[in-house]
Amino acid sequence: MMVEGEHRHLSLLLTILFIPILLRVASPNSVSAVCDFSFTDGQKLYNYSLASPIPNFPHGVLSEDGFYKVAVNDTVLWFQLCNGMIFSHDLPSCVDCSDCGGPSHCGMECSALVSNDIGGYPVCTTVGHASSVVIDIIDKQNPDRGVTVTMSSYRLKHNCSLSVSVICDSNGVQGPLSFDKLGTCGYTTSLRHPAGCATVVSVHGKGWGWFGTLMIIILCLFGAYLLAGMVYRFFALGVRGIDVLPNLEFWARIPWGIQGFFASLVRKFRGPSHGYRSSYSPVNF
């Protein structure tokens, strides 16, 4: 009985330890959805899928280390794009990391974390979560340049954010090399990556347009008129067969009218037919 109880305790412990890892690994679709973005410019559709596999980068723009790291003076910035950070090495050691995993798992429950040296102690502040990611074009006049990924974190004392410019570079990855601070808790940085390059699709036309919409409305009104007239003649007047169509005589004359119209046009452009004598032609008695 004791052995069986130990096995159950061990199984429960392993399940608790591995569930977070399995959830991270088994959710690529959610990561891809966060990283997908489309932008229309005239007749071109720019599609960005930052987390989709591309040659030499099976995870797209996501760092294969589980995080990006950049340091300026005594400030260190860790972040991961479109997903939470995963640390197998170089785990942040912070005095306060309450909303990003706590002291023992610091950095594991957010997407961006910054550490500042205050009084000789590294104090960490969460600046972004994957659930708050917003993607936009860097330059709407030049959509091929890339996109900006912005994430944020809101607390009682701080409203923080991180904006990462993913610049299109088909030659490889470069950066991030530095970052800038905006306001009290805003940070910006950039990196060059092939995942920042868009797939461009030509978009022909812009829907039905006003004329197509007008024609649809006219056809719908015409269909409603025929249906209402047929119902009235069938149930109220007791008409049966093809005569149930309202104004049948009028609709029956339309083909003959069209034929006569085109025949008159043909005679007008061809001139008088053979055997036809004009009223002004000379007559021999």
TrEMBL record:
PANTHER family per the UniProt record, alphabetical: MANNOSE 6-PHOSPHATE RECEPTOR-LIKE PROTEIN 1 (PTHR15071:SF0), MANNOSE-6-PHOSPHATE RECEPTOR FAMILY MEMBER (PTHR15071)
Chief place where the protein resides: membrane
Entry GO CC: Golgi membrane
Localization, UniProt: Membrane
InterPro entries attached to this UniProt entry: Autophagy-rel_prot_27
Record flagged with keyword Chloroplast: no
Topology within the bilayer: Single-pass membrane protein
Membrane-spanning residues: 208-232
Pfam families: ATG27
Source species of the chain: Tripterygium wilfordii
Keyword terms, alphabetized: Membrane, Signal, Transmembrane, Transmembrane helix
Signal sequence, start to end: 1-28
Domain of life: Eukaryota
Protein name: Autophagy-related protein 27
